[in-house]
Structures
1.
Amino acid sequence: MGNDIILFGLAGVIASGAPIVIAVIGETLTERAGVINLSLNGVILLSAMIGFWVAVETDSLFFGFLAGMVVGALVATIVAFSSITLKQSQVAVGFILAITCRDLAYFLGNPIMGSQGPIMLSTSIPFLKDIPILGRLLFQQSLMTYISIIMIGVAWFWIFKTRPGLMLQGIGEKPAAAYVRGANVQKMRYFYTIVGGALVGLAGPLYTLSVKPGWKGTITGLDGIGWIVLAITIFGGWNPIRAAFGAYLFAFLQWLGLVLQPYMTSIPSQVLQVAPFPLMILALLFVNMGNTEWMERLIASLPDKVRLRAVKILRSMQSRQPGALGTPFERQ
Amino acid sequence: MSSPFLKIKREKMNVEFKNINKHFGPVHANVDINLSIKSGSIFGILGENGAGKSTLMKVLSGFIQPDSGEILLDDKVVTIDSPADAINYGIGMLHQDPLDFPPMRLIENFIVGQKGGLVPSYKSTMKDFEELQKKFGFSLDPEAYVDTLTVGERQQLEILRLLWMGANALILDEPTTGISSLQKEKLFAALKILAEQGKTIIFVSHKLEDVEALCSRVAILRKGILVGEVPAPFDSDELVEMMFGKVITLGERNNLSQEKVVLELKDLYVEQYPLRIENVNFQLRAGEVIGLAGMEGSGQDILLRACVGLIRPISGKVIVKEKDLSHKNYLEYMENGVSFLPASRLEEGLVPGLTLAEHFTIAGDEKKGLFIDKDYFKEKAEKMIDEYHIIGRPDLNVESLSGGNQQRAALSLLKNSLSIILLEHPTRGLDIESAIYMWGKLKERCQQGTSIFFISGDLEEILQYSDRILVFFSGHVSPPMDASTTTLDQLGQLIGGKGWKQVFDTKEKL
């Protein structure tokens, strides 16, 4: 393989990672507020189909993406209403929605199976695109890929550096304490659930209009992405930057599977297609090793100076879930 | 963005309650309360658990709304709909469990809820923070994470935050529960400074000694009714009588220890980051009560948990009744008659969602068949409710019991023929009457030869009930001291790390 091909492939990884990045950021925002939206596997499929359909009908990419976001926001509203207002189990509701939306997507999507739709082309950024390596990697992408990259920074900045972001952390961590500090916990949870849902809904059409163009029913190959997004959100420690790394790692593993296929004929192709999923889990487990008891023991036996440093590094790697994740808030 | 507090605006605020009534279902938690609190003073609100103190304070801090009645601030009627409202009026409440965010850094926790631009300025907040904490002699590291602080430090943080938000009236709900005596001194000093500045301090407690040491005036609540108000100086007996409606005497210490050794620690070495405890050699005799004293996080909880297999020792031995259980788990210890009552009753001790009767079903040794003999356990629960004076019914879920009753329930669940009971803060959060009762029950067990190993932050409790005392200071353990010859002062010095060399000749310890 020449360098060009590798570079080309890696640029593809950035592009095919974009929908995962956006969905992961959406789910991260939702979970940071203390709500688990488990429906996202179904939402990605349903918004992929509807977004594609709308784009075909209107011949507009914009309306396609918008339709996907609306689908995501609507499903998220159901999750929010049942879990925040009715205080029902978020897991049960989300899970049923995940299955329902998936089946709806396959069923309702029959008429447009195999249709030709608009495809988002890449727009190179003048000057920046000529930077060696980086230009090829980052600046000859599609508009949505740029947006996904910018979103990583924006989401990170919002959660960790702004005042509303701190409050968001508080709402998911200890809603009673956030309430005492003047937050309208229920309203903010609605807000972040719906915004997060809309972002997840954006990921769907990003597949059918750009990364994997067209709607091909069950062989579109998007089933399962939502679950991986959920895993990346968790192992990404509810941090957009770490989660983005997870998303790109997954896209990279998928690409690797494709590239290696011709060289490894003895391995069934299904194995290579599925391998990214367990590999992903392993990689993320490795990152979170600092949480384990034996690791603590190992660290305790180190000399003081080394230990303090090690603890600091591990602490920054550790992920800790929002304290009130999945639990409804009651004022009294 | 700096707070009104820093502009040395000495605002005063008088707080007045007028005919406050609050019902919770059939319980009349506040009955027609009339109370007037002047600014610039430390006002105590005293009463046993469930007397209605917290309810009254939650009404003032906007957490709950009264059924009837008014709150007046500086003679003006106000409606306080939420805690955020309350802080806008200048009322801040320090809750018993600090309402802060454990995974955040101090400075972030400090900023959350403060109004201002999109991106808060850490630099100026940091300056405010340092300036503010200097006034009270606190030394908190703003970059540290909240979950690395002790309860006392989290209180300090919260007090600073409330002041920074502009609180003129500060409510403290049982602030001395779970903090060390040194932190208590710091807290009291800070409260005195604030009162001198003209702030209104409302100090809610069931601890007589704290109220006596701090307050200039005390209101006593009993069963939701304001029994009376007393100015300083106080007469303890009078206060107790007002609180309980009767006179209570403390139990006697009686040495019941026998010669038989039930627990032996040999060269024990345990560690839980960042503490290590080395070279512990100790023998616990049957019927003996041992108190573990020390500031929170000095290692006493680690040692206690190592004695029941919840933390495995790195080296050394734990021998229970001549059996080496060093690397066994809790189940093995239980089979050998060792039982552990943790501090967090609802998290580790009882099972929320299960009724009292169901607790007896899963805890006991009897009727271990597949199906539950409901009548049997209902009867047993009733018997225990009677014996342990638990206010509750067999079919009530444990979380609906009050703290004191939960503790009694946890105690009643312990098997009868235990050789060792280990307790963490057995009377934390309990009023005097419940605490005395608790110890009465424990002493009964000592008479039957059970030994007790307990941790307490309350030095008087340790002196009162232990036969021997182990003092902890940042992982160092003292040799056992005879409780009858130890003074409160001595103990206070030792847990602060002073005077170890004079008291103990054992040089390898320090």
2.
Amino acid sequence: MAYDPIEKNPEIARRANMADYARARAEFSWDAARKQIDGFPGGRLNIAHEAIDRHARSGHGAQVALRWISKSGQRQDFTYQDLSRQTNRFANVLKGKGIGRGDKVFALLGRVPELYIAALGTLKTGAVFCPLFSAFGPEPIRSRMEIGGAHAVVTSGRLYKRKLKSLRADLPDLQTVFLTDGQDPGTETLPSLMAQAAEDFDTVPMAAEDPALLHFTSGTTGTPKGVVHVHEAVVAHHVTGQYALDLKPGDVYWCTADPGWVTGTSYGIIAPLTNRVTMIVDEAEFDVTRWYETLAGEAVNVWYTAPTAIRMLMKAGAGAAQAQAFPALRFMASVGEPLNPEAVIWGNDTFGMPFHDNWWQTETGGIMIANFASMDVRPGSMGRPMPGIEAGILEIRDGSVRELTDPMAMGELALRPGWPSMMRGYLHEAARYRKCFRDGWYLSGDLAMRDAEGYFWFVGRSKDLIKSAGHLIGPFEVESALMSHPAVAEVGVIGVPDETAGEIVKAYVALKPGHTPSEDLRLEMLGHARKHLGPAVAPKEILFRQNLPKTRSGKIMRRLLKARELGLPEGDISTLESDEA
Amino acid sequence: MTHADAETALREELHRIAPDIDVAQIDADADLREEFDIDSMDFLTLVTALSKRLEIEMPDADYPRMQSFNALVLYLAGKSGQ
């Protein structure tokens, strides 16, 4: 069914950073946007300078940049001045170990202050920062560090012992391991190095096109892709933060995403700091009461969260929200997967304002399509393109590309490249990168429609990728881990709909001769997958099958597994050679 | 329900979600999600399974009392004694 648009009060629209969408689009240029950042002489720049030092040096050093809430609920504040000094110390620690320009520094940490300090300190040295999600198991960690060529990693004593220590022999490039707590042979103790390091550091001026960030994303086949972003991306982080999140200097802002994923870096570290807000960082995982208390108690002005969390709040009922008041709240946004219209409306009923869904990808580095503060919200739509971004719906047939301009025509969502935070490559995979472009378009891999007023509507993914709790998961990575179990003959992994998580990972397994399906074996396989992949990637459901549907070439037909799971038409099965039983 | 019954129920339900974790190896007073490597979705699955199995209500507001293995056992034992 269609939902009525949620109209904006003209007064609210007028106060938004972008009060008039059409005008902003007409007047926008990336060259003008570049003038909003400081930069260094000679056209050079550094993300970390824009995020911290320029504020610390322009009279805002005493403003809280990061308020950290520990699991136990204790608060610790870091001003812009504190962050400036701490990141300088970290940069000096790296320098002391011979790490600098172009080297890859990884982080495997929960949401602790050291993560934010390491990210920005790394950028100051000209090294490339790569965050890993701490709920990854050893296998996703190994493959990402291997592809990335990690020179150093910052992690905790606990995560090191559980996930990294056993991989050291496989990672010859990894010379330095910094532990944020505890000690272990072959590692460096970060707190004592930080204490000894000097508080001054000259941030390295970088060229606009120098790599700054490496984010991994999943592919349908093969290994994860290392997405490279450059220092100039900060221009897009900054203006999208202003336009799509309506960030204003001095705001209290809470991005609930983990920096292990691109949202948690672009909008959980960089954009909020370049826009000089006070960021709330909560170490703890999702919890209904705690989240409402944080929103109210910290007087959050702008909140950027995800559909899974919103749906969990909805499930908890209105009573939990009614226990608190949110007079400070001004803008709420959501990303990770399309936000269902019911959730947008629930936001409006509960908080007096809708959630503003937006769309972007690891590859685009920043928000591309959004429901903006001054614009009416069409529940279920991802919104309209950012000023400076041209989006289209393409029909791709037999290698030829045609833009579809009829309202609600369905095709592949594509963008005209050229914005500063666009990826500059998949690390070591030039061919895979080239395949993303056709006739001057970047192909997103998502299917969408555009209505007559230019709002975009998500339809589905054109590939087999799974989106669970906002995390993109490649079926191949999960299948590979299950294949390494001695009883497994073949496996097909798909995403199945889940009311809360969007999708959950489900594996269909056929056993080798001599093995019989049993509950014990199922649990053993689940444990095996969790041990290798970690809870964020491992399947939540495993089902035994005698045989899986395959093509003549032996490729498992995930599409068919999914159609059957959902009770949908099976489509073209002319290539089906061997069917499931 | 006795303390031992609560512990058995918790052990069994945790084993169904995180079979790779040996209960004997964990710190029963430390953060449950961290010790068992379970995410928010797993935690919800656990709460749903326990509340169904023991026929008790486990509202969101009580989650702060379920932060460690031992705390959760105490919570469950107290809950069904009501």
3.
Amino acid sequence: MSFEPKILAFLCNWCSYGAADMAGTSRLQYPSNIRIIRFMCSGRIDPNFVIEAFLRGADGVMITGCHIGDCHYIDGNYKTVHRYEFLKEYLDTLGIGSERLTLEWCSAAEGMKFSQKVTEFTERIRKLGPSPIKGDEQ
Amino acid sequence: MNKTAAVVGAGISGMQAALSLAERGVKVYLIEKTSSIGGIMARLDKTMPTLDCSICILSPFMLAVDRNPMIDILTLTDIIGAEKSDIGYKLTLRKRPRYVDMDKCTGCRDCMSKCPKKITLEHEEPFGTVKAIHFDFDQAIPAVPYIDAENCLMLIKGTCGNCAKFCDKDAIDFEQKEEIVPLEVSSVILATGARPYIPLDRMEYGYGRYKNVITAMELERLLSASGPTEGNVVRASDGKEPKNIAFINCVGSRDLKTGRGYCSKVCCMYGIKEALLVKDHDPGANVTIFYIDIRASGKGYEEFFQNAKDSIRFVRGRPGEILEHEGNDLLIRYENTETQEVIEECFDMVVLNTALVPCEETQQLSEMFDISVNNYGFFMPSKDISCPIDTKQDNVFVVGACQGPNDITDCVSQSIGAVSKTFSMKGDIKQKEKRSLPGASGKDPRIGVFVCHCGKNIGKYVDVKDVVEYAKKLPDVVYAEDSLFTCSDQGQKSIKDTIKKEKLNRVVVAACSPKTHENTFQEALIEAGLNPYMLEMANIRNQCSWVHSKQYDLATQKTKDLVRMSVAKARLLEPLYQREVDVVQHVAVIGGGFTGMASALEMAKNGFRVSLIERESKLGGKASVTNKQKDGTIPEELAEMMANHLEESNNISVFLSSEVENVEGFVGDFILDVSTPNGIEKIECGTVIIATGFDSADVKSSGYTTSESVITDEKFSSMVNCGMLDGKNYVFILCVGARNEQNPYCSKFCCISSLNHVRCLLEDKPDANVTVLYRDIRAYGYHEDTYREVSEKGANFIRYSPEMMPHIDIDKKVVEVYDTTSSKTRTIEFDYCVLERGAIPSKGTTKLRKLFKMSVVSSGFFAEAHLKLAPLDTALDGVFIAGSCQYPKGISEAITQAVSAAGRASIAMGGGTYSAIPITASIDENKCIACKLCMDMCPYKALQMSENGIHMEVITVSCKGCGTCAAFCPSNAITISGFTYKQEKEKLKAIFEGSME
Amino acid sequence: MNSKSFWGWSSTEALREGGESGGFVTSFLESIVGKYDNILAVRKTGTVFEGAVMSIDSKEDAIKTQGALHAVCMELSHYIKKGERTAIVLKPCDARAVIENMKRNHVERENVLLIGLNCGGTLPPVDTMRFIDNYFELAPEDIVKEEIAKGKIIFKTTSGKEFWKTIDEIEEEGFGRRENCRYCDVKIPSMCDIACGNWGTPAGKNITFVEVFTENGNNALEQAVREGFINVGEPSEKMIAVRSKINGIMKKMAGGWNKRIIGRLRNMPNEERLAYIKNVLSPCIACYACRKACPVCKCGDDCKCMQMDPDDSLPISIFHSIRLLHLTESCIGCGNCSDVCPVDIPLAHLHQLFARNYEKKTGYKPGMSIEDIPPLSRGDLPEGY
């Protein structure tokens, strides 16, 4: 059987979860590999969750939030940006590779963008193959 | 008798009014003529100047209106009669049929896909096609489509009925008839808004004849991701992306030919916004804006305009005509008034920045309620200056764009102002029902899983029965069932019955989005005696069945995963409770100018004790240096009258020559140390309204000095007020100390007050020679009338350029100025040269900013919680800002904000308690290592060090539950209720525990 | 303030002779006795391989701290108590740990006087004893003094004889400085109030080169001079240059080791590095000694790196992956974690690998100044967003 990546996405409640809902109401099809965890703000996304996702078997992790300036909590997404940059470096150093993590801004009106980004990311991870940290346990 | 209110119009003004009234406990009937609440703002792509996604900020707001039990939304409804009654007004409503049963419909949209009749929505021609049964926009609320009777084949010809055939819920009802309903309310807020002008009578621009000439509203829909082209800007003639686009300002405004002499206020800015968005979509596009004056007078507007200059070409000149050229391209002929050249230029697309004009029903409503309209057909408040939202009728208010073009910020201020006035009128306010939420039951988790078919929306794409069997095997799940519609009455009844029968203490609903349905199911839990936060939803429709509808097995597998994830989190759910804080029924108002005085009086009317703190020895602020206003108001007299009212009120203490020196506490219980002539006074208050106004910029920053004959605006005003002016030749220089390097923003009111100075001068001395040196005359709204009036009376306007500031020769009493319109240098003699200065933040603002740890914007004025939707709130709960400390503004707007801030404060203080959301951070003192990493990360300053300095504390009333602090805490001491580390970790683990393959 | 440089030495002749490099630090400590709640330094407790922290309450105590102890690898930042005015003698990594603790509100800057010692590296005591036995047939008791100078490690015996080998030689043979010291690139502790050392002093003159970085340090120094504890002089331009040249040489050497140790890991293909990290961490017996020994980690026992489940079997434990994460922006490279590991996991170079990569990316180096805000705690919007 061909490789089906496991992808975990962290969505903020206000914009990006809205975008995912919108993708749904618009019936925009995207690969079914993604599992979503909702937080109130992308600023809540603890780097530990991202690491733990990889340790437990995620092949890719997607973080989404409100566009810069649109954060429901003033500037929570600024912190997300710093954390994303931090995590990318961490993943590169560890050897998992930063290309397995992505950050996207989706407004509640951008159902199309959400589904496109999920599709693109799933394809990217599919090409990359299984996360190397899973090793032989696959 | 309890107060009730009818709010007419459910755009941003009406929704804001309704929600604010309801927050305080007033029953509201929100009457809307279309099928959805939302108004114009719901159709916008972005808002200026922050480029916020319009629907993103509006959608939560619309949901809040929808969910509020104190608000009845009456869509497709018109007022057809109104008569005065004992309690207020008896209204007659006409409810037009929707043909869809609102109780049955789930918003699944199956009907829409089956409807054969395509129609186009307003502003979406020729692109958009929806069906005869449709939503006006994707996020419409109520989330129930409606049938356009004029286009429905069933309703016209009695053939088709597809929608009814395919509706699982049997929600289509062709038998619905128009109803006439009576409604009695104690007050009425008219918020009927305005509509974009359709420029068919401006023949020279060819709108309606040329395919590629469109209105700004049409472009807005093209730009919108949820618009007819999903955000692609294309030409109607050939579907190609335009590369060369022109915007023409002032179409249908500042235009006596079409009877609209007013400036439409918002068009300059929305034009720039759309121009930037076009550039954003296609950086290669060339964008030109044709303008007369760029009226960027509002917070952040001037900066927005200046930044736009980098990518947008601005041409001063009003195009005379547009001709179609080489097919569907467009040739514009115009005179560039900066170079005096007449030019013909070709564009692919022309966008007309059209005026806002009154809605059709304005005239009718004005007759029904016996209130005035102005000569442009907008509602007219009884007094421009002192009562900008009152009408002749005590209990009827006019707010928002129905009284003239207004931006969203002003609409919101006016709405909440009317709300405050409603609070202070006769009648009782139903005290907020304190609802104590049920707690947890039983220690060990007993979970019930309810899987929804959503008709076929889930059921067709997912093996729901298989999911139910799977759910039954998950740990702690004691019950699982499926139902056709879990959200239906029957579905909810099943949840409630099962909670009791199976002694469930946690519920997982696998259905649609918690954003739309969490509240529904939470209510069911409460009714069954279970804490509402013991609910976890799995969004198996929007995130699964709808988006994987061609992959039955994978979708079923994913549904199982989503259910397993929700169960994993549900096992750890804990009950949460509304938090209530007692609020001291006393408000401190800081600043005793018009704004402060108006806030204080309004708060006292609303029944609160008030302390008014003023640093000067006299109330009134700048009233004595302001001239008579156009509506006849003499500011000094108005200030005196207000001061007298303050004096007379038993509820108001005035502290003159006093300043706030220290601030402690938070919403509900602030303690201010105020230094008064009698020593330090401690004022304990529940909320604070800051109205510290502005100071005038230094003339030196524009290179000027004053003398006997070169005087400041204030000096001039005083001289007019005292009748001391003795010269014949007057020169006014505008933008002194404004829009320059030091103060790059526009101070908004100085053009207006300068025109007023000229008006007063010419009234006094009709023979005076008046020359006004300006950069742009920003006579927004009805101030355009004054501009025209003084021009007609002989005032001479000369446009200068900031690179060549007018030069004053004090000795010779002449001003030399380079006139950019005629490209000539002119020498003008004067007896008096008046320097019209911009505004800077006052000393009080600078000081209070530090004391309250409040943020300011780059210009130094206070930052509001949200420029558009919460202009009076700050990041600090319980602290409100009004008037020129938020941004420079005229008296009328300042008083509106004053009343409005009082409204916000009344809502916060009403009922004696302040309730905060239950999702919040809490700190485990034993784990906290006091490293403070969280403290600076909190956007609401809701974290502080404990008194003993060994751990952090959450100021729970200030916490909004975003969780940013928790993500920073290394020692795992911070818990976000509802989203705890353990709960989310279990959810995460659950993803990988099942077979995802 | 801009830093100022001095030559300094003890005014007491005996101390000038007996102390390291002119007894400056000893007399400086004497001068501040009674002015702080706590004055902390290391003193010898037996041979040069044995030492303990002592709290200096008198001038006599101060004298007991004479002499350098490269082979006593104690980490002192643990001993600073919040709220107490403390003066403390530190090597650069200790000082960097203190700075990190200041950023986390565990130490107040205004309450401490940081007396830094230049450091070319420390020696692991057990290995070093084995080394002198193997190569020089010396016992620990024979050594009265050890020194790292001019690229050599020098041992002076009771009989007055000097035994030495070049650092390079020793280290090629697997002995010498601790691994983290070899690639450590902070040799002069500029984050302290003052930094003392023998680089840039004329040979045989018993003088300390003192660089003063803060007002606080300057005041203390001026007071010590005023009260007659120490003498200072203007260092010659030439010797200032010599000092910075030595610093440069040491840093260059560190650079070489950095390439060999960290660079080797950095240059591995991702999968190979991941496999290395997985393998190297696999013997972990979950004693958490590394966490306890870490000078920047102050969390309680239920912190985020401890959120593992008993039944977890993960490719890398939650404990180590979260510690690698948290230390990415705070590891100051003291090497304690490696030292205490009972199964000899070379944790220090793993943590430094992460920290140095992050430094490369962001320019942020932990422990250098309390003014430096770690990128994660910055509220601004980074470029490109």
